[in-house]
Amino acid sequence: MYLFWIFLFYSFVGFLIEVGYARLSGESKQDRKCRLLLPICPVYGLGALGLLLLPECVRAQPLLLFSAAVLICTAAELLAGLFYEKVFLVSFWDYSHLPLHLGRHICLRFSLYWGALTLALYYLLHPTVAWLAAAIPTWATPPAAALLCVDTVLTALLLRRTRDTGSLRWYVRLFRRKPA
């Protein structure tokens, strides 16, 4: 249960990071969520889980943690990108225009970002996230897991049908101002 909540917390933190990055970099795609209902980017949760499975001696040394984060988070990004492409039939990101890319899903610049981001999150945010995840009552996990499963299935169905990540932005129409 603890790892499930860690996954969700970091998937949500990843969504916030993605939105912030899109706003700061001026990217045209401002909304960066990867699910129909939940504001999450699961690749961040997967990367966090991979890092938390490292031995404590690695996590305690910033240089080792940075190096491991570059490798683990880049692998998570590659696997997630391939998964989205093969199963959901969409691509959420494409690094082919950046130097030192390997295919569309990974590049050196973002691999180094993952290392730096991991150090900041692990040493500054993770103690609070770990405390929060441990404090969530046991009864809350099954409904949250069910919601995540339903959201993932609905997302897969919608994306496979539309082949467009923009279809996840259904709520934009709700908040769009109508002309007077």
Offer a concise description of the structure.
The chain is mainly alpha-helical and 180 residues long. The protein has helices at 2-25, 42-52, 56-59, 62-88, 108-135, 141-162, 172-175; strands spanning 101-102, 106-107.
Q: Would you tell me the overall average pLDDT?
A: 90
N-to-C SSE string, H for helix and E for strand: HHHHEEHHH
N→C terminal distance: 50 Å
Total beta strand runs:
2
From the spread of the alpha carbons, the general shape counts as: globular
The radius of gyration computed from the alpha-carbon positions, rounded to a whole number of angstroms, is 17 Å
Helix content: 55-70%
Largest sheet: 2 strands, antiparallel
Task: Break the fold down into its secondary structure elements and pairings.
Elements: H1 2-25, H2 42-52, H3 56-59, H4 62-88, E1 101-102, E2 106-107, H5 108-135, H6 141-162, H7 172-175
Antiparallel strand pairs: 1-2
Helix pairs in contact: 1-2, 1-5, 2-4, 4-5
Could you walk me through the main structural features you see in this protein, from its secondary elements to its overall organization?
By secondary structure, this protein is an all-alpha fold. The chain has one domain. It has helices spanning 2-25, 42-52, 56-59, 62-88, 108-135, 141-162, 172-175; strands spanning 101-102, 106-107. Strands 1-2 form a two-stranded antiparallel sheet. Helix 1 crosses helix 2 (42-52).
